[in-house]
Amino acid sequence: MTATRVLVLNSGSSSLKYQLLDARDSSRLAQGLVERIGERVSRLKHTPAGAPSRELTAPIADHDAALKAVAAELERDGLGLDSPELAAIGHRVVHGGKTFTEPTVIDAAVLAEIERLIPVAPLHNPANLTGIRTAMALRPDLPQVAVFDTAFHTTMPESAARYAIDVETADAYRVRRYGFHGTSHAYVSRATAELLGRAPEEVNVIVLHLGNGASASAVRGGRCVDTSMGLTPLEGLVMGTRSGDLDPAVIFHLMRVGEMSADEIDTLLNKRSGLIGLCGDNDMREIRRRVDEGDTRAQLAFDIYIHRLKKYIGAYYAVLGRVDALVFTAGVGENAAPVRAAATAGLDGLGIAVDAGLNTVRANGPRLISPASARVAVAVVPTDEELEIATQTYALVAPGDSEKK
Question: Which of 178, 194, 252, 317 is most buried per CB count within 10 Å?
């Protein structure tokens, strides 16, 4: 029997998201989420394919206990982790630095390098490492693969990846643009080319990944040439709780005049800025409801959000020179028609426009929302990071592909 199943794990500091997929047909066999790990009351929601969800509420002490609870739920569905059909476990790892440019089978050296990168991803890489070590202890015989959020962006030229600071200082402290949401940008740019009936190598795409975290990328012929997030996920677009682009001197001003500490400013910019800092809400649905009711703070927050989006669309149009498609994805990008309409309004001179009727249609799959005559296709493409991780993982460990290892 050929093993074709891949378990995808996305470990957060107090959560564990998972999906079990079959690489033969990209089907989902089960998915779920463990929340509030280490708290007095934890919650596991497990959904097998074609069956109702099951919920477990009980103390789950750590990630080891969380993964064992997940394994027990999978076992109930005949999908246990000891199944000979399980080919590998794929792990989302947020930061791979310059070292990891593609999916990588995890060994001691890989673990050490991911750990070495913790200073540039202090919120994410430790949690990712915990998930990896837990899974390796549970199935030490099974290939474990790291798929890095930063990998897709390693094709950026130095002119895009470098900041204009002293080179020796930048190199000593690994300061450069790395970018994030890479698995999403990779999947969506490729799916957009497929939607257009063309090969990825033939298509230039601007991808807008708009969720609570948000990023843009310029993709030329299937390769990223620029992206909005930088050394950390703080740079770029206005996000749910993150400021995005900011004059660096604001930090010095807050230190000197506001007498704020580095930790206080870190919290301000990452957790109390963006939409929530501007209007008190980071849910675009609630913001739009308030806008419709005439709330001026919500309107200003929305206008700032859209202004930043348009700046990046224009900048990446200039970087690419020719744009075949502008694509919206992730929670806000896929569901908020007013955001798509506002972000593209007035861009007719660039060949970018949306059809008002098509834009408001709700659908599950990839779709075009631009007029048939538009020079640039505008699309909505649901992202699928778990499928991308499973696909990359299986391609690395599948029988007959040993040369990739």
Answer: 178
